[in-house]
Amino acid sequence: IAGITQAPTSQILAAGRRMTLRCTQDMRHNAMYWYRQDLGLGLRLIHYSNTAGTTGKGEVPDGYSVSRANTDDFPLTLASAVPSQTSVYFCASSGGNPTGELFFGEGSRLTVL
Amino acid sequence: DAKTTQPNSMESNEEEPVHLPCNHSTISGTDYIHWYRQLPSQGPEYVIHGLTSNVNNRMASLAIAEDRKSSTLILHRATLRDAAVYYCILRSRGAQKLVFGQGTRLTINP
User: Fold this and answer.
1) Do residues A8 and A110 lie in contact, with contact meaning Cβ atoms separated by under 8 Å?
2) Are B89 and B96 a contacting pair, CB within 8 Å?
3) Closest chain A residue to B92 measured between Cα atoms?
4) CB distance from A99 to chain B under 8 Å?
5) Cβ distance B27 to B50 under 8 Å?
6) What is the spatial distance between Cα A106 and Cα A71, in angstroms, rounded to a whole number?
7) Where is pLDDT greater, at A40 or B21?
8) Nearest C-alpha of chain B: how many angstroms from A42?
9) What is the signed CA dihedral for B80, B84, B90, B94, rounded to 10 degrees?
10) Euclidean distance between CA atoms B69 and A100, whole angstroms
11) How many of the other CB atoms lie within 10 Å of CB of A98?
């Protein structure tokens, strides 16, 4: 049972480069999310998608874009990475009802130099 | 989104019960109370959730105050594996997203 798969697990990136973090789920969940977690802080929502074809902004969307072309995939793109985007990124999905739990991936650790 | 307030850290001993408090004085009638935990170097994992009544599952129990302005996550017999950051989150009906606060870092002493 795969659940949520994130790639890459870890990446070092030069500032100004473009980067896409991949997220795939095999649970046919409608809703998907991207969070970032910085040292000593809780998780902050970047973008979310309630269903394929729709996306929404979270708490910290600036500098990030997402797309949801199908149910399974929800990539997060940094068009021009900056050092402040150094963080651990978590993708999650849920079945969509208010009592449904979120399933999280293992995270992608990104370092922007 | 309604806010939650949790202690920054708590400490307990192995095989003893742990009561993790959460205040949510601005909770609305449609807000569900969710608890997640995050083990070191892992993504968060779901623990339990409830609306008005107390809830039990294999991981924990959730006690919800009658006025719903506070709740307590109860680990009946803590193990070293329960050392984690525990997040109390309100999720309103119709809202898909969860907004995480700072959580409580739970330390379990052997």
Assistant:
1) no
2) no
3) A98
4) yes
5) no
6) 20
7) B21
8) 5
9) -100
10) 22
11) 17
CB A50 within 8 A of CB B95: no
Where does residue A69 rank: exposed (0-12), middle (13-18), buried (19+ CB within 10 A)? Answer: exposed
With H, G, I as helix, E, B as strand and everything else as coil, classify residue A109.
Answer: strand
**Contacts with A, B 53-72, CB within 8 Å:** none
Question: Among residues of chain B, what percentage have pLDDT more than 90?
Answer: 75
Q: What chain B residue is nearest to A59 in terms of C-alpha separation?
A: B99
Interface test with chain A among B41, B47, B97, by most A beta carbons within 10 Å: B97
Residue B102 — very low, low, confident or very high, per pLDDT cuts 50/70/90?
confident
Whether residue B45 lies within 8 A of chain A, CB to CB, comes out as: yes
Please report which confidence band the pLDDT of residue B98 belongs to, taking 50, 70 and 90 as the band edges.
confident
Secondary structure of residue A84 in the 3-state scheme? helix
- pLDDT 10s digits, A98-107: 667 889 999 9
* Token pair 């996550």: residue: B73
- Across the beta sheet with A19-25, the strand order is A4-7, A19-25, A76-78, A64-66
Q: Residue A1: pLDDT band by 50, 70, 90 thresholds?
A: low
